[in-house]
Write a structure and sequence with these properties.
- With 198 residues, the protein is mostly helical.
- Strands 1-3-2 form a three-stranded antiparallel beta sheet, sandwiched between helices.
């Protein structure tokens, strides 16, 4: 009994899809024959109906797109002869009506901004001239006597604990460094275990 009911429902769905396809084929055919229309917007429909409509439009040799944010409000638009421009598609995706004049104005403004950016790049970077000389500002760090010369050679003032790079390098091997650390540990342990130690 349940299987018979399921079969009946499936047949009913199949009939509805065939009927919907015929209706869409007629609407698309009427749209093709109407020379005044270049695009047609359909009412929101579910996913299956949209896929049937896309198939009908493809068979007819037209272009179709779906628009809308959520599943309940998605609709299909079909176009004759040409695919719409990216700007037109973007307007429909945003839920706006396509206005060619406004789009042309936006395009002109975009081109103008791009030309200005290119001209700015050709001019090169702007020359910056600070109000004060950093050598004077940091002379107490660099050294007062030869502040201007020292800034160029980047020699640090030794009074501030800067060590030359050559003195920073540890020339010992890893084994030598580890042996020295172990020796210091043993020495500390021996001092701690001696009776007179702290």
């Amino acid at each position: 009994e349940q299987a018979a009911r399921m079969k009946k429902l499936q047949e009913q769905e199949k009939r509805q899809k065939v009927e919907f396809r015929r209706r869409m084929e007629k609407e698309v055919s009427d749209f093709i024959q109407d020379s005044t229309q270049t695009k047609k917007k359909f009412q929101p429909m579910n996913k299956i109906e949209r896929s049937i409509l896309h198939d009908v439009v493809e068979v007819a040799g037209l272009t179709s797109f779906s628009f809308g944010d959520d599943e309940e409000s998605r609709y299909v638009m079909i176009f004759k002869k040409f695919a719409p421009s990216d700007e037109e598609l973007e307007a429909y995706r945003c839920g706006e009506e396509w206005d060619p004049q406004r789009a042309e104005e936006k395009r002109r403004l975009k081109e103008l901004a791009q030309r200005e950016a290119e001209q700015e790049a050709l001019r090169g970077p702007a020359v910056v001239s600070p109000n004060t000389d950093y050598k004077d500002k940091y002379s107490h760090l660099i050294g007062k006597v030869a502040a201007k010369d020292a800034a160029h050679t980047m020699e640090a003032n030794k009074a501030y604990g800067c060590v030359p790079v050559a003195n920073k390098r540890d020339t010992r091997s890893i084994e030598e460094a580890m042996n020295e650390i172990r020796a210091k540990k043993r020495l500390r342990q021996n001092e701690d275990t001696e009776p007179g130690g702290a």
